[in-house]
Sequence to fold (255 residues):
Amino acid sequence: MTEQSPLLVVDDLHVAVEGKEILKGVSLTVQAGTVHAIMGPNGSGKSTLSFCLMGHPKYVVTAGKILYKGADILALSPDERAKQGVFLAFQYPTAIPGVTIANFLRAALRGVRAGEVPVKEFRQTAKTHLKSLGISETFMNRYVNDGFSGGEKKRLEILQLAVLSPELAVLDETDSGLDIDAMKTVANGINALRAPARGFLLITHYQRMLNYITPDVVHVMVDGRITRSGGPELALELESRGYQGFKPHIEPVSV
Fold:
């Protein structure tokens, strides 16, 4: 990838789930070092886009392209995309009783690297990120998301992001279900992980998350399409106007 090449290009993407078209021609470009926020109401296709970028088999691409670092990744499985540096933080992370966070993170890092991760190196990496994110080291001994609050689940997603260090981080409604203190903690973690070589795609319902994370670009998604893009001020306009004024304009078909 040349210095000027985009990290991610989504070109006229159409996606169907169980035969129903959800994305109806989504296009966007993410440069390394930038944060893009995608805002939209329930059912607009935001989460579909995130799962599609990660390669979930349920989401069928019927047209369009996804180029990551200049290469088409549509044929790659989710684990292959992860090895390439793509990361997805889930809106509803799954609990895994009996598996400690330490073992889970080390296994994930081993999978992404496709090689062994020495215990000493892993412990030091984890300790560094726990400290920077303000998370107690005892957190590593708990079972993955087992009995976790919403804030704890989202902190674990950000810890995974820090440990795995992807180049493209897709965060699917990371603010969902968080109180204001948990949201600030998660936002601070994301801000700490912003880097020149890393791009973020931050999917959210509300402007409130963007009070703490200033995006470079805001996209409005309604009915499976990006209907408008702009700077951070667009999120404030959405807050005051709502999504009603951003519905896609469909030209009538002549018969």
Notes: Helices lie at 46-54, 78-84, 101-113, 119-133, 150-164, 180-193, 233-241. Residues 119-133 form the longest helix (15 residues).
